[in-house]
Amino acid sequence: MSPLPTITLHDVRAAIALVDFDCIAAQARMSPQPRGPRPENAGTPPREAGVLALIYPEVDNEIHIVLTRRTETLRGHSGQISFPGGKRDPEDVSFAATALRETCEELGVCDSITIIGELTTFYIPPSHFNVHPTVGYLPHHPTFAPNPDEVAEVFSFALRDLLDERFRFEETREFNGYPVQIPYYEVCGHKVWGATAVMLGELEARLRCILV
After folding, report:
1. pTM of the model
2. Residue 210 and residue 212: Cα distance in Å, rounded?
3. Domain 9-211: which CATH number of 3.30.70.3460, 3.90.79.10, 3.30.450.20, 3.40.50.1580
4. pLDDT tens track for 44-86
């Protein structure tokens, strides 16, 4: 296996700025199959949320990306691995503003984060949410002060690990009596699946277009 390339901030910017990129195919690679049915309230507009894919340089100059493990007491997606973020408030001027506000509230990271761009909106059937991912950059290691009511754990991993097939797996789970194929990344001892994996999968595909 050839050595994985070191990913730079320039690479991330170029990956996010790609035009004529097949985002649907990129999302499908890490999406559970078959997708869940639209919920009973699908006749109403989906709720809207913003999340932040926060990247920063580690001491070895590797670009890392931040994830959280949600507490078991939260109503939605409890215990799951996710990006910091949440429901858009009426006062939020954009989904990036939502993502930054939620990152400050959840992780205590309220620094001036540079917005790199956005990934593709992803619809989550069980919760009837459209999730709008923003990619942001902090030029130093974040100082985390997680909200214990929302965040059980904060961790990060090297962005280039997304390009390493040794971190990608698939398993079958049963939902509502039906088998579903679940692709996932295994990082830092956690299985990252669902919407978070889909968003990471799009970022992976974009980086592959730039680097491979």
Report:
1. 0.92
2. 6
3. 3.90.79.10
4. 889 999 999 999 999 888 999 999 998 876 555 556 899 999 9
